[in-house]
Amino acid sequence: MKNRVVITGLGIVSPNGVGVEAFHSAIRYGKSGIRHFPELEELNFSCQIAAKPEVSEEQKRKYFTDLQLRNFNSSGILYGVMAGMEALEDAGIETAGKNDEPLWDLGIIFGTGTSGTAKFREAIYLLDSGKVKRLGSTTVAQTMASGISAYLGGMIGAGNQVTTNSSACATGTEAILMGYDLIASGKARQMLCGSCSDDGPVVWGGFDAMKVLTWKHNQDPEHGSRPMSTTASGFVPGSGAGALMLESLTSAQERGAKIYAEVLGGNVNNGGQRQQGSMTAPNSIAVKRCIKTALEVSGVEGHEIDYINGHLTATVKDPTEIRNWSEALGRKGADFPYVNSLKGMIGHGLAASGSMELVAAVLQLHHGFIFPNSNCEDLHPEISAIADRSRIPIQTVSHPLKTIAKASFGFGDVNACVIFRQNSI
């Protein structure tokens, strides 16, 4: 018998809202976090708009001392720590005291794509200048891939598995499923799971060079990210972090914890970069297999899915994604589930995208609404031929949700899908 797994805490550092309360309000009302960055214009980027969280000094100092911040230069770790600690606090779980034993039943799986790129850049400059002794004692911790989980592990006193995963844009969704497996199998009682991403030209430059970013909206940032739209012209780069506290149902009930939703299960697979799949394009056969397997292991039928939180990046692959969902679920037209994409408001957060979108999905499930699809007034004709316009709302819809799906698809042809159910316990 598997342990049942529930969500008892949420945390978010997003371009359109720092903290769950601000983020909840932002997505409900369609607030954009995308803006023009003069730095990108000066560097001759084709895409000069992006999305990054606006974090105040006061917010930073809630989790870091002045001494820590003096040599701190890792935006992804900053966002991840803030989101992770908020999820812990939201769940009502206290950190271990410095002289206490570690929290043996609490672990962390917090992913990232890159870590400390700005710190790397600073280190290279110092090394090239022959100033190796000025690198500082925290350079390694800020630039190692597992820096985010290590920082969180030390702040919390986590004693179970503490690690970092990395699967491109599927990282956050994969982290949730990894944490779910540990709790379901009895190897942990509580797992803090999420993902984060650095921001800035070093991270975003490669995508600009690939010509997958939009270049048509530099003077109109809020309308630049257009998932499922006929006039979509590429994604807007973003950053941030999302976190979810997963817990066994037994543990949550023993503590009298608030429960947002139950995690029913999910699946991770790979298209092998075969057939129509490649490093950057998904193999649709694998995508549909991932969704169907997620449903199967969750004990859910395709007709039970009320809502889909899509990956939907505002590229030419959006119609393909909707087609894959339709075929995997056996649903189309007015029978297609509600679907939306957070990227219309905050761009594509890369490794952080899955976790930020998971927080948005759980908030909608918990509060019974579907946030608007920003900039999707001109729905792509290939999508409208599959799903009824009413299922892709451009205004907020109040609607009770019971069972929902979230999927992420990343470079390397990796796929992840997770199924949630409204708390009826």
Describe what this molecule looks like in 3D.
The protein has 425 residues and is of the alpha/beta class. The protein has two domains: 5-255, Thiolase/Chalcone synthase (Peroxisomal Thiolase, Chain A, domain 1, 3-Layer(aba) Sandwich); 265-422, Thiolase/Chalcone synthase (Peroxisomal Thiolase, Chain A, domain 1). Helix content is 35%, strand content 19%. The protein is built from 16 helices and 15 strands. Strands 1, 2, 5, 6, 7, 8, 9, 10, 11, 14 and 15 form an eleven-stranded mixed beta sheet that branches. Helix 13 (318-329) links the parallel strand 10 (307-309) and strand 11. Helix 9 (171-184) packs across helix 15 and helix 12 crosses helix 13. It is globular. The two termini are 18 Å apart. The mean pLDDT is 96. It catalyses: a fatty acyl-[ACP] + malonyl-[ACP] + H(+) = a 3-oxoacyl-[ACP] + holo-[ACP] + CO2; (3Z)-decenoyl-[ACP] + malonyl-[ACP] + H(+) = 3-oxo-(5Z)-dodecenoyl-[ACP] + holo-[ACP] + CO2. One of its GO terms (biological process) is fatty acid biosynthetic process. Belongs to the thiolase-like superfamily. Beta-ketoacyl-ACP synthases family. It comes from Pukyongia salina. InterPro entries: Beta-ketoacyl_synthase, Ketoacyl_synth_C, Ketoacyl_synth_N, PKS_Beta-ketoAc_synthase_dom, Thiolase-like.
